[in-house]
């Protein structure tokens, strides 16, 4: 994935793309709600491109020579939100790289996972990159998410999958990220899915809800030579 050369995406006053050029669906839900799991399924059935804001930040954090590495590390450990200029720029760069690579293909469709987690990010992205089509919101109670994260922590190697960071991430989610969901809700731009059941059952509900919004799986046609 491309590194950051310079910031600036977030300060643009008009959007880089229009929703006619590219479809963006934000995927939100508390830590451990299952966003990444559901996104992987959606990628294989719908042809979405999946961009995880957290993964892009971790990649930038680990990139030798990154001037943002130390800062990102500190924010992630604390479960707080990295200043949006960095995250918006990383997302824009990743979208550009994908679109460049797939030029001439069908209209690109992105799932942007774990973003926007704060109102300023939501506003900056929609103003300067592209307005989203809607937000897929995975709704899950904290006790279920907590259990999943503790299990994930046994193998994920993530610095923030420990009890102390998990508690902080829950707080940030409720106080900082839920207002984003609430704002999109008022614009009728939230598709809510219950995320407590098994990944397969949650996925069935996801597919049904996407269909209601006019989004269908791609049907692969096998041509016999
Ligand atoms: N993060 C951020 N801005 C974003 C997305 C993520 O600052 O837009 C940071 C934040 O510190 C968060 C961490 O990255 O707690 C991990 O995010 P990720 O999406 O990987 O966590 P998940 O929701 O999958 O548990
Ligand atoms: Mg994730």
Automatic annotation (TrEMBL):
Pfam families: ADK. It is an enzyme of class 2 (transferase). Keywords: ATP-binding, Cytoplasm, Kinase, Nucleotide-binding, Nucleus, Pyrimidine biosynthesis, Transferase. Its cofactor is Mg(2+). GO terms for cellular component: cytoplasm; nucleus. Monomer. Belongs to the adenylate kinase family. UMP-CMP kinase subfamily. This is Uridylate kinase. It comes from Polyplosphaeria fusca.
């Amino acid at each position: 994935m491309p590194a950051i050369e310079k910031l600036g995406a977030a300060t643009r006053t008009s959007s880089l793309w229009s929703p006619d050029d590219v479809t963006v669906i934000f995927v939100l839900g508390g830590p451990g709600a299952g966003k990444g799991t559901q996104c992987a399924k959606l990628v294989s059935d719908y042809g979405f491109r999946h961009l995880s804001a957290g993964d892009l930040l971790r990649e930038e954090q680990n990139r030798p020579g990154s001037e943002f590495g130390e800062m990102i590390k500190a924010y992630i450990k604390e479960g707080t939100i990295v200043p949006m200029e960095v995250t918006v720029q990383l997302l824009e760069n990743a979208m550009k790289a994908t679109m460049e690579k797939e030029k001439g293909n069908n209209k690109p469709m992105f799932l942007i996972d774990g973003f926007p987690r704060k109102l300023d990010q939501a506003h900056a992205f929609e103003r300067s990159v592209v307005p989203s089509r809607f937000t897929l919101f995975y709704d899950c109670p904290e006790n279920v998410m907590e259990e999943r994260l503790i299990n994930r922590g046994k193998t994920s190697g993530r610095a923030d999958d420990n009890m102390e960071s998990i508690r902080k991430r829950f707080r940030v989610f409720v106080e900082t990220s839920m207002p984003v969901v609430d704002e999109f809700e008022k614009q009728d731009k939230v598709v809510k899915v219950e995320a407590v059941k098994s990944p397969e059952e949650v996925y069935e509900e996801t597919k049904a809800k996407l269909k209601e919004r006019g989004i269908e799986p791609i049907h692969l046609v096998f041509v016999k030579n």
